[in-house]
Amino acid sequence: MRPVELIEIDTLQPGDSPRFREVDEEHVRRLAESEADLPPILVHRSSMRVIDGAHRLSAARRKGERTIAAEFFDGTDAAAYILGVQANVAHGLPLSLAERKAAARRIVELRPELADRAVARTCGLAASTVGGIRREVVGEGARAAARVGQDGRLRPVDGGEGRRRAVAVIRASPDASLREIAQAAGVSLGTAHDIRARLDRGEDPLRGAATPVVPPAGQSAAPAIAPSGVSGVSPVVARAVAAVPRIGAGPGPRPARAARPAKAEPFAGLESLRRDPSLRFTDHGRALLVWLHRRLVVVGEADRELDQIPAHLLPVVAELAQECADSWHRLSVELQCRARQTG
């Protein structure tokens, strides 16, 4: 929690708002007429720009206040903008879909290394929507080798090369341990476990990777090396890794990635909740919106965070996921029953 301070209103500067219209006069009027204690605004200390709370500030001015309660944020301009988007998505007057898309575009421009899912979480969009925005911003051909995820860790955008190396290791040395496979191929233990399980089931271990395991006829195979510092890998495993072609090796063009069908916006019902005055203008309503925003998470099959789960903990995480699913199902049934009783 940041400390709350009373600051002079005249010292504040307009913020870099994600809204197309910075102030909604009708919303300001409602806040000014409200007798409830409004939350403190958020201010960028170095510039004194308002990050979150422009309507609360306008309401205070309308009431003739000279000071306002505020929390300070110390960080870069880019970080302040992203924080402002997060705050506006989570509570207060809701951002429109167009405003959230424009904010995502701005964040991709400010922080191109952020993963699509991290930007999507910030802006309340689907990761596929952010991916389309990124292609518009940087072009189809431009692609970073790695991006920063929601947890702040840097990960490769395309894990196909590591998976191909792991496949070669498993096929050349079926008795190799998961740790040895992971070290030789430069993948996580969870990924090594997933690849071996897929091979055992006869499934595609690459999960739709853009390039095949075996190079096209006439294409030379460039050596692929394990990450530096890896030790304890058998010669058989090392030779298997070296035999796998690296992404982009040889003169042949890289096959195009199959187009994915467009996905509907996740949790579209949240938009109607954000518009409802009974939630927007009450403390318990805003608390509910924040509670939902923090707990509704889109989990896709390709979430890289899931690749980092150690193999021996996969059953534990699976059980936790099942417990979460059961809890949400019970809540859904209970709320539907309450809706029928009150309807």
TrEMBL record:
SMART domains, per the entry: ParB
Pfam families for this protein: ParB_N
SUPFAM superfamilies: ParB/Sulfiredoxin (SSF110849)
Coiled coil: none
InterPro entries: ParB/Sulfiredoxin_sf (IPR036086), ParB_N (IPR003115)
Segments forming domain ParB-like N-terminal: 5-89
Name the UniProt record assigns to this protein: ParB-like nuclease family protein
Taxonomic lineage from the root: Bacteria, Bacillati, Actinomycetota, Actinomycetes, Kitasatosporales
